[in-house]
């Protein structure tokens, strides 16, 4: 990859979006720029349907790894730039191919030239031959196969310069960040909810995370874990908000009803009501959860029905039809899996009854809630008691001052 | 007093000692405790592990903190041979390893294992070919140091790792990285190296702390059983202040590696030129060796005499390696390189640090020349 001096980023779906395209491309562009902040020499050029990143000596591999996370970008190609002169193009092609495919294993090969700048003296077909011949001579392990080549060298001839590239690295795809509005993500400490959040972000949603804690029944470590998970998600968005909701009292009251098999249903409903209130305050138009159909008692169709009715907002469940194995694979790819499997209890695993209802009755649930006079007030109090953190990928998280001994970054 | 014994141990960074003092007084909590103080300690431990992993370009879960490289080497060799005893009872190592590897192998021989000690060439090196030829069906582990602590000879560990990974992926490969880290760049990730030992005090960190890199997928039989710390791989309450200080030293060592290597190389070249000019001395280290170790012999002269005379002049150097220098025997490493017993018994090691300057080197050379002149006179007098 040392042979490349520019990256070519392609947009996918968003090019079909008519008038909105420029807004979408701008969103993706600003995302790219924010991720390039650690690489000051890299220069971003926006062209119709594409973004170019001139590396100017910055490390290609690190930048590709970062830009793979830009939503709306479907693929990235490392590009070698040469002047638009036949000799320079041929020499550049020989060097480029021998760098990315040094042999000696036999490799099938093809040149795909495209003359975008028509005044260039040689046509596309002619260029395929003019470039292909010398490259084959210089790398005898290559064999031409115009139908299914293992290595396709693209030669794109433009007015000032010509681009040589071969690799097409798949990127995140989807829609640029925030172009489809905002939603609240219910973030537990588990495997599913971070993946659901990532999927929602990929679809162009801006996400604010909501986490319920039942300190002292849950530990501070569980809270740290959620902060760390939000931090991983913030890598995909530049920054992310995390609302920490005190849930102990509500949970205690709900547990006090003695309705053991309905406690999970009651808790989930209370959580959705609080999340809906937060959504209204923060201008979000939907709730996102990590529900996957049938995975646990609260995620049966009957449970989803009774729980979901408590909110009028659309409930988005990106993982609802995914298998656990698929979700785990995705969690590993986005980097949340290792955190998610840390063994700290969250408030959903506390007070878990022996046999939670998989088929709760809406009327009974509503009657229990109606019998709890102070419930609505407690939900509001929980919203008031929210601690909101703004989390960025490379900065320590600022918390309310506590009396704990602080940890200094400069110790490390 | 000028300190020229960095291969024995290094003066710690000021910021490392400050970190240790602050962490030690504030964060005395046991990372296994559930209360806040324990949680803070556990957070420090996690962060330190991440910092080390990032500097070494490995995963945090692949790092086990130990009490130092002696423990790391013991853990690697005994842990692997015990864990994988079902694969066989044969090990391969070299004739010039550090005592913490060498004596480990000797112990295993007493317990019925067979060990092949590969001879080194006159420059102190083995080849991957030698390793390959020594491999047997029942070989469990190969252990080769990266940089020799006495002569600075650099072993081709990347080539050996590559060969093992390609042709004999079941054979584990341990590298004692103590003398190389921060001075001779080495990539661990994807190198065929399964186990890699580091010590803090050789890279300007505290004594009594080190680590072993254990590649994901490799298990070791734990030598210390107990409370199950370090994922059960090394029990014992974690030494949080030292671990944090160590992580800082690891980061600093890695960050400045290329620059330090280039600088030390220059100083070494200067020193070597001066030593060659003194005809009584014979150089044992080679130009391709590590940039911070220069080794020479003064045939016919007890090394200790020169050491103490240099000390009077204000320069601290070493005979043999610090770990063996109280023994009167000639150096095992030098004998293995084919040096005569006389040269092997009269070896002096000068080891450099990043804080040395060109002036320090020229002062040292002047003193060295002066001492040799004086010793030559004494020798002459005695003869007559």
Automatic annotation (TrEMBL), chain A:
For the ligand (ATP), the binding residues are 186-187, 211-212, 268, 290, 299
Output the InterPro entries linked to this UniProt entry: Rossmann-like_a/b/a_fold, ThiI_AANH, ThiI_fer, ThiI_N, THUMP_dom, THUMP_ThiI, tRNA_STrfase, tRNA_sulfurtransferase_ThiI
Name its pathway. Answer: Cofactor biosynthesis; thiamine diphosphate biosynthesis
Q: Where is the THUMP domain?
A: 61-168
Enumerate the GO terms in the molecular function aspect.
tRNA-uracil-4 sulfurtransferase activity
What does the UniProt entry say about where the protein is found?
Cytoplasm
> What keywords are assigned to this protein?
ATP-binding, Cytoplasm, Nucleotide-binding, RNA-binding, Thiamine biosynthesis, Transferase, tRNA-binding
Q: Which reaction does it catalyse?
A: [ThiS sulfur-carrier protein]-C-terminal Gly-Gly-AMP + S-sulfanyl-L-cysteinyl-[cysteine desulfurase] + AH2 = [ThiS sulfur-carrier protein]-C-terminal-Gly-aminoethanethioate + L-cysteinyl-[cysteine desulfurase] + A + AMP + 2 H(+); [ThiI sulfur-carrier protein]-S-sulfanyl-L-cysteine + a uridine in tRNA + 2 reduced [2Fe-2S]-[ferredoxin] + ATP + H(+) = [ThiI sulfur-carrier protein]-L-cysteine + a 4-thiouridine in tRNA + 2 oxidized [2Fe-2S]-[ferredoxin] + AMP + diphosphate
Give the protein's recorded name: Probable tRNA sulfurtransferase
Family of the protein in this entry: Belongs to the ThiI family.
Tell me, what does this protein do in biology?
Catalyzes the ATP-dependent transfer of a sulfur to tRNA to produce 4-thiouridine in position 8 of tRNAs, which functions as a near-UV photosensor. Also catalyzes the transfer of sulfur to the sulfur carrier protein ThiS, forming ThiS-thiocarboxylate. This is a step in the synthesis of thiazole, in the thiamine biosynthesis pathway. The sulfur is donated as persulfide by IscS.
Which HAMAP family does the record match to this protein?
Answer: ThiI (MF_00021)
Q: What is its EC number?
A: 2.8.1.4
Q: Which SUPFAM superfamilies does the record match to this protein?
A: Adenine nucleotide alpha hydrolases-like (SSF52402), THUMP domain-like (SSF143437)
Q: What class of enzyme is it?
A: transferase
Q: Which Gene3D superfamilies match?
A: 3.30.2130.30, HUPs
> Pfam family example for this protein?
ThiI_fer
Automatic annotation (TrEMBL), chain B:
Q: Which family does it belong to?
A: Belongs to the class-V pyridoxal-phosphate-dependent aminotransferase family. NifS/IscS subfamily.
Metal-binding found in the keyword field: yes
Cofactor(s) annotated in UniProt: pyridoxal 5'-phosphate
Q: Protein name, please? A: Cysteine desulfurase family protein
Aminotransferase class V domain residues are 3-364
Q: Which PANTHER family does its entry note? A: CYSTEINE DESULFURASE ISCS 2-RELATED, CYSTEINE DESULFURYLASE FAMILY MEMBER
Signal peptide (residue range): none
């Amino acid at each position: 990859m040392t042979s490349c001096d520019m990256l070519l980023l392609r947009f996918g779906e968003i090019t079909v979006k008519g008038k909105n395209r420029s807004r979408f491309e701008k969103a993706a562009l600003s995302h790219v720029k924010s991720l390039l902040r650690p690489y000051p020499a890299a220069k971003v050029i926006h062209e119709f349907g594409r973004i170019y990143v001139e590396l100017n000596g910055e490390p290609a591999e690190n930048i590709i790894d970062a830009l793979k996370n830009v939503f709306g970008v479907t693929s990235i190609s490392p590009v070698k730039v040469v002047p638009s002169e036949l000799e320079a193009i041929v020499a550049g092609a020989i060097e480029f191919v021998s760098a990315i495919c040094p042999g000696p294993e036999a490799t099938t090969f093809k040149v795909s030239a495209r003359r975008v700048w028509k005044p260039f003296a040689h046509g596309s077909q002619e260029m395929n031959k003019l470039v292909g011949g010398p490259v084959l001579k210089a790398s005898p392990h290559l064999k031409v196969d115009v139908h299914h080549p293992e290595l396709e060298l693209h030669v794109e001839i433009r007015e000032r310069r010509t681009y040589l590239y071969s690799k097409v690295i798949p990127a995140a795809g989807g829609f640029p960040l925030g172009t489809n509005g905002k939603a609240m993500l219910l973030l537990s400490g588990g495997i599913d909810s971070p993946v659901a959040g990532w999927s929602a972000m990929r679809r162009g949603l801006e996400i604010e995370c909501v986490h319920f804690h039942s300190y002292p029944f849950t530990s501070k470590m569980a809270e740290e874990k959620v902060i760390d998970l939000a931090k991983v998600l913030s890598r995909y968005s530049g920054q992310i908000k995390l609302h920490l909701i005190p849930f102990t009292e509500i949970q205690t009251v709900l547990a006090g009803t003695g309705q053991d098999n309905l406690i999970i249903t009651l808790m989930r409903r209370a959580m959705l009501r609080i999340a809906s209130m937060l959504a209204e305050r923060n201008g979000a138009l939907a709730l996102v959860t990590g529900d996957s159909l049938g995975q646990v008692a609260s995620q049966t169709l009957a449970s989803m029905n009774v729980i979901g009715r408590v909110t009028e907002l659309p409930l988005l469940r990106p993982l609802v039809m995914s298998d656990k194995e698929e979700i785990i694979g995705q969690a590993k790819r986005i980097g949340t899996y290792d955190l998610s499997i840390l063994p700290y209890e969250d408030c959903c695993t506390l007070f878990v009854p022996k046999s939670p209802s998989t088929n709760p009755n809406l009327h009974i649930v509503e009657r229990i809630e109606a019998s709890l006079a102070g419930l609505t007030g407690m939900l509001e109090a929980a919203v008031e008691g929210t601690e909101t953190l703004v989390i960025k990928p490379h900065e320590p998280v600022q918390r309310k001052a506590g009396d704990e001994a602080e940890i200094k970054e400069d110790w490390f | 007093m000028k300190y020229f014994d960095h291969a024995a141990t290094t003066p710690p960074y000021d910021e490392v000692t400050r970190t240790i003092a602050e962490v030690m007084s504030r964060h005395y909590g046991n990372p296994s405790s559930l209360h806040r103080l324990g949680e803070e300690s556990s957070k420090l431990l996690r962060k330190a592990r991440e910092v080390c992993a990032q500097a070494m370009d490995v995963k945090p879960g692949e790092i086990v903190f130990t009490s130092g490289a002696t423990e790391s080497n013991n853990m690697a060799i005994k842990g692997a041979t015990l864990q994988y005893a079902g694969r066989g009872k044969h090990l391969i190592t070299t004739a010039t390893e550090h005592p913490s590897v060498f004596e480990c192998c000797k112990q295993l021989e007493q317990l019925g294992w067979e060990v092949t000690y590969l001879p080194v060439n006159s420059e102190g090196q083995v080849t991957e070919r030698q390793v390959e030829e020594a491999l047997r069906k029942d070989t469990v582990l190969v252990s080769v140091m990266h940089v020799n602590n006495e002569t600075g000879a650099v072993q081709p560990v990347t080539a050996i790792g590559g060969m093992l990974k390609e042709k004999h992926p079941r054979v584990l490969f341990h590298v004692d990285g103590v003398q190389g880290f921060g001075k001779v760049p080495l990539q661990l990730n994807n190198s065929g190296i399964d186990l890699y030992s580091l010590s803090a005090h050789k890279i300007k960190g505290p004594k009594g702390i080190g680590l072993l890199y254990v590649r994901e997928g490799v298990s070791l039989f734990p030598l210390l059983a107990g409370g199950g710390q370090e994922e059960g791989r090394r029990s014992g309450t974690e030494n949080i202040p030292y671990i944090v200080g160590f992580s800082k030293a690891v980061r600093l060592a890695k960050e400045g590696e290329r620059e330090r290597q280039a600088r030390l190389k220059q100083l070494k070249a200067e020193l070597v030129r001066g030593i060659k000019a003194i005809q009584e001395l014979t150089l044992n280290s080679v130009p391709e060796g590590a940039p911070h170790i220069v080794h020479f012999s003064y045939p016919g002269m007890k090394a200790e005499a020169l050491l103490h005379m240099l000390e009077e002049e204000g320069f601290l150097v070493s005979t043999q390696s610090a770990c063996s220098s109280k023994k009167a025997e000639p150096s095992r490493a030098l004998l293995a390189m084919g040096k005569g017993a006389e040269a092997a018994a009269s070896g002096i090691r000068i080891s450099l640090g990043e804080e040395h300057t060109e002036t320090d080197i020229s002062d040292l050379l002047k003193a060295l020349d002066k001492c040799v002149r004086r010793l030559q006179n004494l020798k002459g007098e005695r003869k007559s």
